[in-house]
Every structure is written in C-alpha cells, then in structure tokens.
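HUMAN:
Sorry, I am quite new to this. Are you able to go through these amino acid letters and fold codes? The numbers rather puzzle me.
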Amino acid sequence: KQTVADGCISWPFDRIQSIIPEDVSLVFVELSLNETIKGRIHIRLNTELPNIRENVVNIFTGQMGPSLVGVVLSYHKSYGLYSNSSLPFNEMKVACDSNGRSTSKTGEIIGYFGSGYLTHLYFHMPAPPKPDNYGNGWIVFAQIEEGMDVMEELAKQGSGATISDCG
C-alpha cells in the first residue's frame, strides 16, 4: 500500500514520465517483514540491455499491469533472496539476450526469463564471487546501489520478506 506524507504533492507516474530522461535507470524496492517496513533498496539497471531495462521499469512502476508489489521473497543460502514463477511478473514479456556466461557478484540482481517472460528474480548475496553459467534465459540486469544492509538483515530472518512498494 503506497502512502504519501501529509502536505506532499503527488502526481501519477504516467503524468511525469515524459520529462524523465530515457537513460535514467535507478529504481527502488521497499521490503517489509511481518508488515513492518525494513528499508528500501536502490537498484541501478543495466543500460546496456535496453529491452530488458524498459520492461523491468514497467514492472517496478506497474505501467503494464503486473508489479512487484506484494511479491514474497524467500532466502536461499547459496544465492540470497529470490522469488519464484508463481508471481505476477511472470506475465511480463521481456526480450532478452541469452549469451548467459557471467560471474555472480554480491548485490547483483539476476532474472530468469523462461519462454521470454521474467519468471524468477534473485538478489544475489554470497560474499565470494562465484562463476556461473546461467544458461539460456539467465541474465544479470541490475546491481544494488544502496541497501545491502537491508538485504543482509532480511536474510538472517529467513523467508517471508515482502516487496511492499516499488518504483
């Protein structure tokens, strides 16, 4: 549920979207646990992947319907917080480059695009870089710019973190 502080002027995103430069690629997620807000994570999208970037921005802003709001994340010790394919963003079609070989680094956000749809989302947390061949559909599309402390706190708590807001 989005709330605005008293006295603030609020505009729907589609009213101001045209004045935002196309190369702006910073988005955020707000994470909650047991209905208590734990903090925000600021995410820098990969500008080298324009098709993915555009569609991911739509997921964060809800411009095409599906949104990350309400998504429940689980913790997995090998790669951090993740969500699975039963979530609303599996409806978001994404054109992706599947060259696939990369190195997992702490703070990267990795998506799995099954049949051209974003079906899994991973916030990568292991300390040592780990070479991975993500294979067809896996791609690193963003990096956490601020908020790793929030991720680490939620990882200690285990499963049940929820994306309560994003944009």
Summary: The longest strand covers residues 36-45. Helices lie at 13-16, 50-61, 148-157.
